[in-house]
Automatic annotation (TrEMBL), chains A, B:
Zinc keyword on record: no
Domain HTH tetR-type: 7-67
SUPFAM superfamilies: Homeodomain-like, Tetracyclin repressor-like, C-terminal domain
Keywords: DNA-binding, Transcription, Transcription regulation
InterPro entries: Homeodomain-like_sf, HTH_TetR, Tet_transcr_reg_TetR-rel_C_sf, TetR_C
Protein name, as recorded: TetR family transcriptional regulator
DNA sequence: CTTAACTTGGAATGGACGTTCCAAGATTCG
DNA sequence: CGAATCTTGGAACGTCCATTCCAAGTTAAG
């Protein structure tokens, strides 16, 4: 059917593009930088992704698929409740503040701040990302409630909204070089008031009334 | 001393530049757009601010001085405690989601995401902004504690870190068109657990023990 | 083996970028 | 009034931008 097939793997190319867009942002990234990073030519880039906006949208989708979705799925499915939320933020802060992508922030978070956030295709990705994060948080909180980890007064939806919104703040501040300890303090401060106070009596069966 | 003085007011010019940088971001804004917005020529811009980076830094400083500092000062000095924090976020969300700058987010928040955040001069502004916000939050929480508005278990520093970090998330999500109600829910979810439970007995003098 | 279909590298295009330079205008000093 | 000094508008600079185009290369179909 096709006399010739692509000589490259689009997903690998997208991973290269992600790294450039992630670090530099969309408007500050030129086509030449993408050509150099991906190793293929302008023609192939344009034939595959249309134009720069299309390549950016594809790269952002790839980022979400590779980085966000697995973390959200783990958070959502974990049976450990509050511990899973702690692990989520611990891993997040670890990645943001040390290792090969330290100081890059989160590509989705960064995308909010640029002019690309006005593009409807991008905005759809941002909104879906936010909703997925928030519902993963809500799911973990629901698990935590079942485990008796939460204070009775906690509103699951409101708490999920807080934690999801807080995550953007953590990502953002990490890009300006905020210390990991500072970010951890903010996360801890948000989690502490959710936690059920340890029962004064050693009967671990139910939350004490009132 | 000077055979000719500037024919313009630098602060007014900066206000014009702020509007352009704020909405479009630094890398997506060209000199031509700044010339058009300010009404003065390239020569005068370069003579006054050095180059584009200098103009951006000056504009960011002007934004902080004009928008952030007054809000932070009001938050810090208000005698109303938790109410002042609520007012801060209510005003914030109102400005972000409706009116002439709706959908622009916060220029300082936006600055975190771009490559400009790597510039040491910019990073200094970002760090100072964050510290000022956080200490204003901490001050308002201290006032709230004095008014008996806070649950006894609340750690003022941790709560201030949460609220300051959350503000960045609110600013960011507003730029992607998040609904005001959604943002208000996140803020409310962060404030509710801080609040002292109303005393069951009508003696408003002290928080009930335990 | 020829032909058609498709990818690929690299040159070419026009426009916008940030920055510099210079002549002209304006004002204060001698 | 003349000279010096600074600002101003606008042209000019070379570079990089995103995008298009074309010839060469490669493979499947006939």
């Amino acid at each position: 059917m096709s006399p010739d097939i692509k000589h490259f793997n689009p997903d690998v190319v997208l991973d290269d593009a992600v790294r450039v867009f992630w670090r530099q942002g969309m408007p500050a990234t030129g086509i030449q930088a993408l050509v150099s990073a991906t190793g293929l030519s302008r023609s192939s880039l344009y034939a595959t992704f249309g134009n720069k906006d299309g390549l950016y949208a594809a790269a952002l989708g790839r980022y979400i698929e590779q980085h966000s979705t697995p973390a959200f799925a783990a958070l959502s499915a974990a049976p450990t409740g509050l511990t899973a939320i702690e692990d989520f933020f611990t891993g997040l802060i670890g990645v943001r503040c040390s290792g090969p992508v330290a100081g890059w922030g989160c590509m989705v978070t960064n995308a909010h701040a640029g002019p690309e956030s006005a593009d409807p295709a991008i905005r759809e990705l941002l909104d879906a990302h936010h909703q997925t994060l928030q519902s993963a948080m809500r799911s973990a909180l629901h698990t935590a409630a079942g485990l008796g980890q939460l204070a009775a007064s906690v509103d699951l939806d409101a708490a999920a909204a807080v934690l999801a919104t807080l995550a953007y703040g953590v990502n953002l501040r990490s890009r300006a070089g905020a210390a990991a300890d500072t970010l951890r303090e903010a996360v801890a401060g948000a989690l502490v008031p959710l936690r059920a106070h340890p029962a004064p009596a050693p009967t671990p069966q139910e939350v004490p009334p009132q």
